[in-house]
Amino acid sequence: MATIQLQQVEKKFGNVHAVQPMDLTIQDGEFVVLLGPSGCGKTTTLRMISGLEAVSSGQILLNGRDVTWAHPSDRDIAFVFQFFALYPHLSVWQNIAFPLQAQGESGANVEKRVAEVAALLRIEHLLRLRPGALSGGDQQRIALARALVRHPAAFLMDEPLGALDAELRETMRAEIKRLHIDQHATTVYVTHDQIEAMAMGDRIVVMSNAVVQQVGTPAEVYHKPNNLFVARFIGSPGMNLLSGHYTDGIVQLLGSGRYPVPESWDRALKARLGQHGTVIVGFRPEAARIGASGALAATVYATDMHGGYTMLHLSMEGEGGEIIHARANRREHFKIGETVRFDLHPDMVRFFDAETEVALEEVR
Amino acid sequence: MLKNQAAPPATSQPKPGRQISDRTLSQLFIWPTLILLIVINIFPLFYSLFLSFTNYSAIANRPPEWIGFANFDRLLNNDDIWGYFALTGRYAVISVGLQTVIGFGLALLLRKKFRGSGVITTLILIPMMLSPVVVGLFWKLMFNPSYGIFNYLVGFTNPATAPDWLANSDLALWAVIIVDVWMWSPFVMLLCLSGLSAIPDYLYEAAAIDRAGAWFQFRRITLPQVAPLLLIAVLFRTIEAFKAFDLVMGLTGGGPGDATQMISVEIYSQAFLGQFRTGRASALAYIVLVIIIAVSNVYIRTLNKVREG
Ligand SMILES: Nc1ncnc2c1ncn2[C@@H]1O[C@H](COP(=O)(O)OP(=O)(O)O)[C@@H](O)[C@H]1O
Ligand SMILES: [Mg+2]
Asked: CB within 10 Å: which end of chain B, N or C, has fewer?
């Protein structure tokens, strides 16, 4: 079991930052997800933790021990590669036994541990085959088995489900989560899929352009995004973001909507902007409450049925009215072009500085 | 263009005397090669098989006379011939063994790119590109006991006591082996290098994560991954070693005495020296052919086993 600490860890390839200096503390037994679009530095971060990539500066501590310059084999960390990285010339059994034999474990012990982990992952029937003969899901199970068999202090997984098809991903996602619950090993999990991140992570580290944008629980990054990037990136569709001009308790939206600011936010806006200034209003689709008395109005642009609910795509009224997304009861029916009035749930509204794109803090 | 294609293919009807069809053209290209192959490869192959059952001699002015298996009988009951086979086998095992170890070792050293590694690789490959006759001649100079540089390099600095490699019947075989290893280790290295460069880096990354030491990685990843190409190199070199002729002729001519009388040299001696026993030489050549095919088969089976695991 292990805690992992990154202190001002940074990686440059030539002059290009793959990872800007970042701080992160991962608690013992925690499941942390690194989430971000492709090329944002997730893999590089993971490889630095594992020791496969040298840091450009900063420190990595494992259980408080400085391992910044330690060889991967001195870190007692297992790594599940994006494309499995199984040994193609060895049988499944030999693949799983590899880490044990490399440590010089006795034959009987190797037999026993491989059998245990094979039972855990239900791959006993594959042990004699070569990895090349297996499906993607089975290959990933072998890769997990190879990581698990050693009882490492921590697991690092680089998009382990990225190469699998959608249905299998669901199954494997559940298996990995279950494994984590059973083993309770510290895990750092990389993905670019925010749904996967929300589903699996105790905490999510959102990255973009080599910079950590936010670290928080799934609820925090969803409901209280630090900035516009996180607001847009998390959720499908992302947060609705409307720019407007704040004056004296009212935000005059682009187009013609007028949104009266809830009191706790009014204080925050005043503190930031003074009497007036530009601001961005953000709200999740489920924060829109549709009803005749709503302060905002929009016309129905399109509707999607989602079984449990209906997703409305609304065009805000007035010149330059933006498209927003709102969740509605599945029993209500909306005609294209119909005008809909709605309000925003006061606890679910967020405000962002239009220039820095950073979220404002509510003042209670 | 389109218009031309759409038009009826009037041009496909050959006009006599002016155009030749594709079929005729391809035959024109194929037949000269085929005739050449038949005349200088296929015909001698079967003719020599026929000759191996006769007492034909190329210088005797009489037609080949069928004598059945007499040639094979005499050859296989001749202790000298068995001695030459044993000599060739020993030469092949030692020479190919050394080439494998040295070539693989060089490949491991040159595997990681460093400043000048490209130039060094090219320099190492030069011996392999030289003509064996040239190599034989200049190693003859190098081995020369009075002015050759080889003795000096290996530590015999006094010409009076230095060995004469090519004239000493204990050393002559080793001299041939040294030259063969010098010339052909680069070939093994080349194949091993291409095998090594085909091993993906992620296998070593996985092995580092799995806490494998350098020796464990070598045994469990590098060696099995290179094995198929290494075996191909060994196969080629073994076949060549069994046919060793040009280097031996250039260096020792089979001597001193019969200290380096490899089987191919013996075939040459039977065919072109003394009585010009063309028939018997053909029989010996066929025996060698059968042995080489058998040895190659063993290798190829091993190779397939290595590939499938
Ligand atoms: N070995 C490398 N050499 C140069 N640039 C690299 C190397 N590895 C990654 N990068 C760059 O660093 C950035 C982050 O890469 P990576 O960590 O793989 O992103 P992610 O895993 O989030 O998709 C990318 O711009 C990538 O091109
Ligand atoms: Mg990646």
From this structure: N
**CATH at A180:** 3.40.50.300
A281 backbone dihedrals φ, ψ, rounded to 5°: -95, 130
Nearest C-alpha neighbor of A98 from the set A32, A42, A148, A25: A148
Average pLDDT value for chain B: 86
* A82 and A161 together in one domain: yes
Q: Kindly state whether residue A186 falls inside one of the protein's structural domains.
A: yes
User: For tokens 């079929």, what's the residue?
Assistant: B23
Look at ligand 1, atom 24, and give the residue with the nearest C-alpha.
Answer: A39
Helix or strand (DSSP H, E) at B267: helix B263-272
Q: Same domain for A300 and A220?
A: no
Q: Within 10 Å of residue A94's Cβ, how many Cβ atoms? A: 17
Is pLDDT at B2 greater than 50 in this prediction? no
**Average pLDDT in the B296-302 region?**
89
The string of pLDDT tens digits covering residues A306-316 is 888 899 999 98
Phi-psi map region of A76: left, alpha, beta (phi>0 left; psi -120 to 50 alpha) = left
**Segment A269-292 mean pLDDT:** 89
- A44 CB under 6 A from ligand 1? yes
Distance CA B52, CA A160 (A): 67
E strands of chain A, at which residues? 4-13, 16-26, 31-35, 57-62, 65-66, 77-80, 154-158, 186-191, 203-208, 211-216, 240-247, 250-253, 258-260, 276-283, 288-290, 296-305, 309-316, 323-329, 339-344, 349-353
Beta carbon of A43 within 6 Å of any ligand 1 atom: yes
SS3 category, A84: coil
B29 belongs to a structural domain: no
Residues A265, A194 share a domain: no
A208 lines ligand 1 (CB under 6 A): no
State which residue of chain A sits closest to B202, comparing Cα positions: A85
**Predicted ipTM?**
0.84
Q: Which of A98, A117, A148 to probe the B interface (max B CBs under 10 A)?
A: A98
pTM of this prediction?
A: 0.81
For residue B297, count other CB atoms closer than 10 A to its CB.
10
Burial class for A294, CB neighbours closer than 10 Å (0-12, 13-18, 19+): middle
- The angle formed by the CA atoms of residues B215, B217 and B221, to the nearest 5 degrees, is 135
User: Distance, in angstroms, between A13 CA and closest chain B CA?
Assistant: 19
Find the CATH number of the domain harbouring A344: 2.40.50.140
Query: Is A40 within a domain?
Result: yes
Q: Which of A233, A267, A290 is the last residue of a domain?
A: A233
Domains contained in chain B, number: 1
Q: Is residue B38 in some structural domain?
A: no
What is the extent of the structural domain holding A15? 4-233
pLDDT level of residue A215 (50, 70, 90 thresholds): very high
Same domain, yes or no: A222 and A320: no
Of A177, A210, A233, which residue is a domain's last? A233
What are B199's two structure tokens? 């091993």
Q: Which ligand is nearest to the CA of A17?
A: 1
- Tell me, rounded to whole angstroms, the distance of Cα B109 from its chain centroid: 25
DSSP-derived secondary structure letter, B38: I
The rounded mean pLDDT for chain A is: 91
- Residue pair A245/A273 in contact (Cβ under 8 Å)? The answer is no
